[in-house]
Amino acid sequence: MAKTSKATIADVARLAGVSTATAGRVLGRYGYTREETREQVMRAASKLGYRTNALARSLITGKTRTIGVVAGDIQNPFYASILRGIADVVERRDFGLLIVNSDENLDKEIRAVNLLLEKQVDGLIVSPCDTRNARHLRDLHAAGLPLVLLDRSVAGLEVDRVGIDNIAAAERAVVALLSTGHRRIGLVGEMLEEQEGGFDGFIARGLAGEVLSTDTLYPSWQRLLGYLRAHRQAGVAVDTSLIRRVGAYSAGAAQAVARTLIERPDRPSAVFATDGTMSEGVIGAVSAAGLTLPGELSLVCFDDLDWMSFLSPGISTMAQPRLAMGDAAATLLLERIEGSEAPVRAVVMRADLIERGSIAAWHAR
Amino acid sequence: MAKTSKATIADVARLAGVSTATAGRVLGRYGYTREETREQVMRAASKLGYRTNALARSLITGKTRTIGVVAGDIQNPFYASILRGIADVVERRDFGLLIVNSDENLDKEIRAVNLLLEKQVDGLIVSPCDTRNARHLRDLHAAGLPLVLLDRSVAGLEVDRVGIDNIAAAERAVVALLSTGHRRIGLVGEMLEEQEGGFDGFIARGLAGEVLSTDTLYPSWQRLLGYLRAHRQAGVAVDTSLIRRVGAYSAGAAQAVARTLIERPDRPSAVFATDGTMSEGVIGAVSAAGLTLPGELSLVCFDDLDWMSFLSPGISTMAQPRLAMGDAAATLLLERIEGSEAPVRAVVMRADLIERGSIAAWHAR
DNA sequence: CTGAAAGCGCTTACAG
DNA sequence: CTGAAAGCGCTTACAG
Fold first, then answer.
1. B64-164+322-349 falls under which CATH superfamily?
2. Per-residue pLDDT at A1
């Protein structure tokens, strides 16, 4: 009724004529209280405008009912949707959600995790920016804090994680192109991180089917692998000059790279973009170059973004179940927070190809 | 070095051979300590893997260094960008950011605010879903909690706020159409909330220039007003049957409504969509109807979304400075949290028309 | 079913 | 510059 803050359990107890222990029991909904006492306390509480101080409670219980999420960039539709999926679960359970951006930068990620730990979150969902340098995450896990990895794994860190089968998804996307006759398929991928043996070495090994530890590869590298595998299975040789590494999480950079690919005289007949940001860049380049889809170029994108359905033609794309990914990550985390000792789980979801109109059959000319 | 959690100031103090008060002073960076003592404590702290428990600190200081944001839907690009702007400021200042969705629903908004208050946030940024029923916000403000309103105002609630000049923005957008010869301009707007006198009454008053208290109108209603004003100023009669109220925050609903507008025989020569979601719906309808922009229809959208630049032609739109809006909201809030007693501020930003290629001159046929 | 007491992990006066 | 003591607002045994 009155002042929104200030009133404490002690104030309520005094007004109700009971002990703080009793007032606490009714206000905190624990232990037993006589109905009559309960009403008395409730009346006093509402008269004083009492509101629980979750801080004090958390200090004692050791639980904050708050989880932390470290995302690359909440403005990116990929993360925005996943966050929404997480938020839905979290809100339903009356938990709080603390969000920090990492910008895919290790230092920022470490600072983010520290901030969240100081605020005593009950658990963390992290989309790790580095699959190797992850002391901060290992320590976390060693200390017993519930942790769920999102989209990416960390070498040697056995914790719950949620992602899609990137290799299979990319393979299916590229198969859709190969099966309609395309033989020269360009790829525009982030592939920011360095790989042992370098870019060329990786491709060579991928072509030979020699890449073994694929689990801790970054998504865009895994998708490249799917691209290579599709070719290998189809017995189609790969022109490696059609594989373009952008090396940055930026649509602008992707557009510049895509441009050099689609404006060359012997341009590919089709392009595969390995994520939403790359897709934006590629579509920008296509638009700038004035190429018609799918007549002059076929295109398969990744992630189902708003615009893909209302461009004309619609853009065929591998749709990741982003909301469901967020839901799964939050659900796994909350289960751990509630004490689940189940073996480590990897929720590997499936991305589905949504066929719209950006793939045309291709006949050698 | 060791266990990530557990070690307390008392543990560190014991190991360092000092009092908890002294250990607290060095670990919490307050008060004076001899350099030698400091080092001793630091060594003990790192040996134990000490980490501040912000909860305990907050309980005493009364400050959590955390702000709360209640947004309509973090998945919507409008909110996603604003949140990013907020997050940037907040992260720079080592504050935490607690985010909750309201889905533009009053009950959810109230619950969200309560959750955030229990967690003792130092301040709140809210995009209120109801400009009248806002007891929860008024109480908050009465209790002295720093509060910044985003995008919308609340009648009679004098607090800092950030938004754009919606009437002027819409007016300029429509003027761009009128000045190129368009005389029949459709409008597709949310206008979910009811207005005194109803939809028709509102339009009548708007046409007569009789709408007075425009400040607490919802953005889409303000934008409708801008549309009407542009016509009035230009001396162009309005065919009110071209004004379409979607009544929902949904691109699908907008598309259905837009469709009935652009498929009628005497369809308008141009359409103005009053926000990002409506814009998506309209572009979907245009695409489904197979109309060519701008040859068969001119279009001005609202909010600069990714796809608007790479559709062909590009979509002309009123761009809201979303990141800057978030930045401003967070900055205002942090100033209040730091104790600023400055008079209430309304940061009214300007939206700029980005002309791309969706407006064609129109000549009566 | 209720209360007195202790305590969560810090910070804050107050002495010295 | 450092320490002993109190206290932030709750919950948790422990008695009764």
1. Response regulator (3.40.50.2300)
2. 36
